[in-house]
């Protein structure tokens, strides 16, 4: 989750990851059997932290800092769920 835009490859942007159940409700007390890894399916960016555990989630959300490595759209993906997130577009 983010506002969907960044303006510079030097801008570090906070994005928020929320775990949801089958009905789309935020899971406020997740029980994760393994870590969640953040990568990109399009574009290049680094994420800090690059992996999350249940302890990283507060009220169902985890904050991750994303640093784009180029002036292009970024599409994050969350493993092992293969959950493709909304694009975060570069704005000139």
Description:
This protein is mainly β and 92 residues long. The protein has one domain (5-83). Helix content is 0%, strand content 41%. The chain has no helices and nine strands. It has strands at residues 5-6, 13-18, 36-42, 45-48, 51-52, 61-68, 75-79, 83-84, 89-90. The strands form three sheets. A four-stranded antiparallel β-sheet has the order 5-3-7-8, with no helix packed on it. A three-stranded antiparallel β-sheet has the order 2-6-4, with no helix packed on it. The two termini are 21 Å apart.
List keywords for this structure.
92 residues, 9 strands, 3-stranded antiparallel β-sheet
Strand content: 35-45%
Task: State the secondary-structure class.
Answer: mainly beta
Biggest sheet layout = 4 strands, antiparallel
How is the quaternary structure best described?
single chain
Tell me, what's the shape? elongated
H/I helix tally: 0
* Rg from Cα: 13 Å
Order of helices and strands: EEEEEEEEE
Biggest sheet: strand arrangement: 5-3-7-8
Span from first to last CA? Answer: 21 Å
Average predicted local confidence, pLDDT: 87
Give the helix level as a range of percent.
under 10%
Whole-number tally of structural domains: 1
Q: Give the uncertain stretches in residue-range form.
A: none
How many E-type strands? 9
């Amino acid at each position: 989750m983010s506002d969907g835009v960044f303006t510079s490859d030097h801008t570090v942007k906070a994005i928020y990851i929320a775990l949801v159940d089958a009905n789309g409700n935020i899971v406020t007390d997740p029980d994760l059997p393994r870590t969640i890894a953040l990568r990109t399916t399009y574009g290049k960016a680094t994420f800090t932290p690059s992996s999350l555990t249940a302890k990283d989630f507060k009220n169902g959300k985890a904050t991750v800092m994303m640093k784009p490595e180029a002036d292009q759209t970024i599409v994050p993906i969350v493993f092992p769920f293969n959950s493709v997130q909304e694009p975060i577009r570069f704005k000139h």
